[in-house]
TrEMBL record:
Pathway: Phospholipid metabolism; phosphatidylcholine biosynthesis; Lipid metabolism. Catalyzes the second two steps of the methylation pathway of phosphatidylcholine biosynthesis, the SAM-dependent methylation of phosphatidylmonomethylethanolamine (PMME) to phosphatidyldimethylethanolamine (PDME) and of PDME to phosphatidylcholine (PC). Residues 464-556 form the Wax synthase domain. It comes from Tetrapyrgos nigripes. This is Phosphatidyl-N-methylethanolamine N-methyltransferase.
Amino acid sequence: MVIIWLKEYRNKTITRIFGGNAYYGCYFLALSIFSFGILRDTIYHKALLEQPKMALLPEPYATVVPAALIGVGQLFVLSSTWALGITGTFLGDYFGILMNHRVEGFPFNTLRDPMYVGSTMCFAGGALCILDCAALRREMTWFAGMEQYLIAFTTNSRRLTFVSRRYMSYNKWNSSESLEMTIYNGFHQWFRLLVPEPKDRIPITPIFLLYWSAYHVPFFFLAYLARRPDTYLMRLLLLPTALICSIVVAYRYTWTISSLNVYNWGQSLAAAVQIAKALEYALTPEGMLKYGEVAPGQLAKASNGSPNGARNGYANGHAYTNGHGHPLPRSKLRSRWPAWLTDTIALTHSLRGLSFTYSKGIHIPAHTRPISSRSAFAKSTFISFVKNFLLLDFLESVIKLFPGVGDPSGGSMFYPSLPLVQRYAVSTFVHILTGSSLLAGFGMVYDLCTFIAVALCDDDPANWPPVLDNPWKSNSMHELWSKRWHQLLRRTFIVFGGLPSYHLVRFLIPPMFPGARKQLSEIVSVVGTFLASGLFHEVAIYTMFSPTNHATFSSAPIIFFGIQAPVLIFERLFSSLSKVLFGRKMRVGGWPGRLWVWFWMFGPVSQNMVDSWHRRGLGSGMVIPPFISPARFLLPFIVPWLAKVAGSLYGGIGITGLVGREVPRADL
């Protein structure tokens, strides 16, 4: 915070963000300081509750003294704020907002620093209320020392050195543990504060909606700053807060209803995406640029001499593509919303980022819906949404028919009571149902977001190309992952794994070996990207722990996604060596390539991954609420027939009905 104050004092950074309005900037800083104060008080109170208790004062002093300290302390704090006003209290002078006269009344005629003294009295009174001797001693030393630390920071270095040494000597005197153990215990407590044990998580209630909104404010503001020039330092300082809030909102709160357990996975996946976005937005010095920009909101000179934006193309070669090397058609429709709002929403919600430079190289499927008219596009999108909704509803309902897989506690799709062939026939069927459900779910959610963005928010239809490019037609794993499969999480995996591994290799290999440096960095970045994908899926599903299901971690997703990198490398080697082996250049493709894809997507490696999800309750999750589910009304009438067919084919599995009753097994 001190650095932000100095940036405002010297460069007017906050004032420029708010369009030159110093009062708006000061009010924003006041809100930030006040919000962090609430967070500090909450953490302090939680720490007090976890400390051992000891009565320090006899009655009635044990009640009177803390009440007096808190009362007098609040009097000093509130009267200081009243005398100085909002701008006077929260550093208005840094914004050039000065008071008309010197404040000499109460409480400044009583104490030199009434607000600091009042705060210290409030914290000391709080410690006495909870009868915490250790906290009281820490409070009187730590809090007062930190206040003096901040004062010394802005005055002279001698006092700073004195206060720092005094605090360090205090810690050394009070420490009975080794330095390593102290660091470990501190880190472990901090981690468990953010990611509690499953039994310690907070059940989600309606009030969680308010918490959810508050936790996302830092990330939204970070996205807003990413589209403002000269905000790099502020984004760096805001990054820790945005990361912590993203983790807390996903892992501290849990859906306790068994059918909603899958939502825990969903909110953790969303948090991981948000963390990747926050890292990129904060660590990119120039901010998040759109095609044709040299700075946020500042267009480069067009190749034809007119600044018409990325719609006309630029000399830097950036252009929208549809995956086939042709420019993606852009409509001339405009939004009625201000640019700063649409840019912020785009950065916080857009996954492919088609108008931003970080989407360079991404495959964009060709449009299948009319983009010249919003009404025609919205109508086509709504029809697609209904189709995907009905398909997902049917597939989800059928998955719940399988015992174990459809139970809230989860279960394996490999039934050990079946012979080997029948066992894998059933597991393959459940596996295909699960994959088809995911594809239908992608389409349904994307159609809904598209409809809202275009029909209600006046977004450009050209910004919403199809999310999938018919993955069933993939003739190689390279074609599947780079073109056919959705590219929504492409940037997330690159940020988490691709970029760090790429730069790590370039750091380790000296520049005197440029060829090896380039090739190895590219290969390792692919490996890092897929490993990040595996960890992304597994770390998020950790939140689906339930008391009846103790499967908390599985290596199957990490193995499946991790092995994709060697598979892609093998396809590249096959293409390179085919001329030597077969006398002509060949690629993995055709019907052999299709079988190759099916082996990896439907074979034992991928089935183990899906099985690990079902064992943790994925199949029982409520995606479509029963009261709007057509399949829930229709399937009970055909469940006996399905049970008879399944029993005749697979022999005595037993099928759990949609209406919560066990359908009798069919005998051969």
